[in-house]
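ok trying this again, last paste got cut off
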Amino acid sequence: MPFLRSLRIKDEYNVPDSYPFNLPVIGGKNFTMEFTSPVTFFVGENGSGKSTVLEAIAIACGFNPSGGSRNNVYQFQKTESMLGNALRLTWTKKMNHGFFLRAESFFNFASYLDEAQKEQPGQDFMSAYGGQSLHSMSHGESFLALFKNRFMNAGGIFFLDEPEAALSPKRQLVFLSILDHMVKDGSSQFMIATHSPILLAYPDSTIYHFDQTIKEIAYKDTEHYQITKDFLDAPELFLKHLSWE
């Protein structure tokens, strides 16, 4: 069973008529979501609001909006919306452990760890990430070091914004293997914003499609699956008609 079961806007919260509450997928005071699976995916076009909602849930759970765990206290640039402060969460079991991964700002998180290690040489900040600086690895290697070490050794609730950004297709499969192990031992819940048809194929997950509303969708009904399949079936047909306009 998932740890986090549902969310809604706090009754006492005075919802402004501004971003992000005026996004169609949020719809102001009536915004709610339910989570019935240990793995939930958020899909939709760029700008649909999926990353905004994912970030807000992570913030409402107490995670650093810049990325990291509840214990990683740092900030590079304040970009988060007010939505996280407006959410009331309902838990099956309150979970404080976990991680918020922002692919776009993971470089900043790696820099934070390096600086923390320099400032506190008596502490070991690197063992939870494979024993070496994340900057000493390739982008994909650093992501896998995070998944294999920090994730699997702790369990908890994990919010991942486009984790496939640094992963080859083969390494996306490695990530799915790690995720599957963590889910099946009952230690973890995942919420993942993604464009990857490989990740979306994880069995028994819930996929929420963000457009004008948020609705549950089957894997083979997602554009990610349909466009990828059609393209791989006949790439020459697509290339004749593609346009950037």
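PB: full thing came through this time. The chain has a mean pLDDT of 85.
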